[in-house]
Amino acid sequence: MPSKYIKPICDCGAELFFTREEGQVMTYKILKNGMLAKRPVHKGVEFNANHGYLICLQCRKEYEYNASYFGEHKWKALRGDEI
Q1: Which 3-state string (H, E, C) describes the chain?
Q2: Is the pLDDT of residue 51 over 90?
């Protein structure tokens, strides 16, 4: 029988949240006078799916984010070591 998944919690007992830094990529046309256009020609969000960390919003501790890619807890968030 598979083991029950246990949601990651902080050492203080509070719920952990996944945090990932996302950056918006903006592409601007360079005008003939060398200035950048006021409006972008392309907008997009850039991020890496597995880069991030777990954070406790009560005590502010941070933990490595690990995800299981196989087995009984496939695609579930797992807590790693404290950062």
Answers
A1: CCCCCCCCECCCCCEEEEECCCEEEEECCECCCCCECCCCCEEEEECCCCCCEEEECCCCCEEEEEECCCCCCCCCEEEEEEC
A2: no
